[in-house]
Amino acid sequence: MSSGWGTQDASGSGWGSSQQPPTDSFGTAAMADALPNANGRPQAEGSSANNVTGGQDGDPNSGGSAAEGGVADGWAPSQKYDYEQFTDARAGGFDGSKRVYHWDGEEGDLGPEFPELEEELFGPADKRDLPTGIDFSSMAPVELEQEGPIQIHPIMRFTEAGLHPAMAKNVELSQYRLPTPIQKYCLPAITRGHDVIGIAQTGSGKTAAYLIPILNKLMGKAKKLAAPRPNPATYRPGIDPPARAEPLVCIVVPTRELAIQIFLEARKFCYRSMLRPCVIYGGGPIRDQIDQLSKGCDILIASPGRLIDFMDRPQNLTLRRLKFMVIDEADEMLHDDWKEDFDKILGGGEQEEGNIQYLLFSATFPKRVRELAMTHLATEHVRFRVGRAGRANENIVQTIVQTDPSMKRQAMLDLLNSMPPARTLIFVNNKRTADELDDFLFNRGLPCTSLHADRTQLEREDAMRAFRKGTMPIMIATGVSARGVDVRNVCHVINFDLPSLDHGGIEEYTHRIGRTGRIGNRGLATSFYTERDEPLAPVLVRTLLETKQKVPEFLEQYLPEGDELENLQFPSEQDEGIGGGDSGGGWGGDAGGDAGNAWGGGETSSAVGDTGNAWGGGGDTTAAGSGGWETGGASTGGGGW
Fold first, then answer.
1. What transmembrane ranges does the database entry give (predicted)?
2. Over the Cα atoms of the chain, what is R_g?
């Protein structure tokens, strides 16, 4: 196999003189739970086997014909996927149409247990494990600052949060053991009714930090607070008179994928509550979304464009009952061309009582976000900052690899074949590169899929579903997935293209690598560096220094010198109050961690054996060993991944 690793190496190994090939020095043996068992033929809820050719979720072992090209040892042959079988009328194929809990009895505001749905939401009782393996040895010392006259006393355990028994059970079923730093403060603050600004790095547990206390406050109060609505179990769209959606909670997010992700989490926390979650976003069939809203909606998750569309349809949606407004990933949405629309959204439309509790979450806190806070949040709101705004996750080991642009695809193949299998997210800068790299890896037998703006909404959701379930454990994506999306056990993020200074720069880099190392998990980020990335080099080096990562030899020319290095100061928001200057960019965290322990710790399953048995463990874990990507069962091969 030819080298793809630049021209520094004189030995012919393919690695530059300052580089070392990835080995188990990263502790990859501890990634035992990164892939679920993919022996079956999973299908989307609400769909039938006749709707697809092959597996509903991109199962490489079902349907289609094998892709041409060489297949690496241990890999199941890649399969072509027939999207022509999909139609927009097939509502069951969209995640927004997944089942939610409902009960047609009159025994109060809490329904009985529903074992079948409970298993769908939380997984089989004997196979449930942590959605995020929390490494509290790393998370505990994370600095959290709170500002303003109101000081919140944090909780240390969920049992201290005063949760309704049904919510406490849902938290337990979701396998949340201990709250993360942002959760320790947000739960009591939101419960007391304070407006909140939460500034936290990606992967800090922000979604649960607001979903749990909001839904807890509404738990057992659905019949008192919610609008009248038909019985979802017997409602017939187009025949029975529809209800107008009057949500109590509105959560606004920048991307479709994040909207779906939060909806799937809301389904869990709403279990038995009689509160009905719905999601609306651009690209999905608006007729299906109208049908979902017509059954009633208490918790609305929405992308801003589609929310504005529905606010202009008062027969379908009104915000007059709204009690909570959440803006998640605010810094991604608050641009000049959105100001008027956001003023309309945050004004609550025709909200009657004017008592909306505002919760604003962001990875950074630039001027436009501060101005929004000044306009809409209460004067005595509480503000939390976990670490420093825009920081890189301290649990991520960052590796920069120099290569020639013409050899990047081969370098990617070499990298993937040099390490044990793991759920891997690859970022590129444009749609064409995503398609070309997808074809290149697919035709060489790697189980990959891709995500970008030219995909239909059904294709996007199917790709995300396959990636989450592990049937396609390599995802190639443009920046559309860089913010907010949390897929369990993404062990490796690869920047096939580094972001340019004109398209996000170091802040975009920070958001991308934040897809791994989520909520205390250890992660690995590898970035290909070419001569075209030279403008990014100085700030990239500063990020590596701040996170105590090794600066490769070819970037040492950008190191500060002498006193400048000894007295190196990183941007701080100590003096950045409301109305202050613009945020400084995104820099890394304070601690990088040792590469030899990059994957250890937390609640993740431990490895069994050495590098040759890197995929130990039981339950849903697929034993792949050193033999390669084998999504159909255990591999005993000796080469490849």
1. none
2. 24
Tokens of 198: 């939460």
Place of tokens 């293209």: 497
pTM, two decimal places:
0.65
Under 8 Å CB-to-CB from 189, ≥6 apart: which residues? Answer: 152, 196, 382, 384
For residues 337-366, give the mean pLDDT.
77
Specify the CATH number of the domain 29-94+389-561+587-641.
3.40.50.300
Identical fold for domains 29-94+389-561+587-641 and 144-386, yes or no, is yes
Q: What is the pLDDT of residue 433?
A: 95
Q: How far apart are CA 615 and CA 30, in angstroms?
A: 8
* pLDDT category of residue 394 using cuts at 50, 70 and 90: low
pLDDT tens column, 67-117: 344 444 444 444 443 433 333 333 335 555 566 655 554 445 677 888 888
Report the Cα 269 to chain-centroid distance in Å. Answer: 18
Which pLDDT band, with edges at 50, 70 and 90, does 548 fall under? Answer: confident
The CA–CA distances, whole Å, from 581 to 333, 367, 380, 568, 626 equal 19, 6, 21, 21, 52
Residue 547 CB contacts under 8 Å (≥ 6 apart), including other chains? 392, 394, 396, 398, 588, 589, 590, 591, 592
For 66, phi then psi, to 5°, come to: -65, 145
CATH architecture of the domain covering 144-386:
3-Layer(aba) Sandwich (3.40)
* HEC string for 480-548: HHCCCCCCCCCCEEEECCCCCHHHCHHHHHHHHHCCCCHHHCCEEEEEEECHHHHHHHHHHHHHHHHCC
Distance CA 256, CA 242 (A): 25
Query: 222: closest CA among 103, 314, 309, 380?
Result: 103
Residues 178/154, Cβ–Cβ less than 8 Å: no
Which residue from 364, 363, 290, 351 is spatially nearest to 324, judged by alpha carbons?
351
Return the DSSP state at 111.
Answer: P
Q: What is the DSSP string of 313-360?
A: -TTTB--TT--EEEE-SGGGT--GGGHHHHHHHHTTTT-SS--PEEEE
Structure tokens at 282: 């651009």
Digit-coded pLDDT (tens) for 247-305 = 999 999 988 888 998 999 999 999 988 899 999 998 888 999 998 899 889 999 999 99
Number of H helices, E strands in the chain: 17, 14
**Helix, strand or coil, per DSSP, at residue 594:** coil
DSSP state of 551: P
Domains of the chain, residue spans: 29-94+389-561+587-641, 144-386
pLDDT at 54 over 60: no
pLDDT band at 65 (very low <50, low <70, confident <90, very high): very low
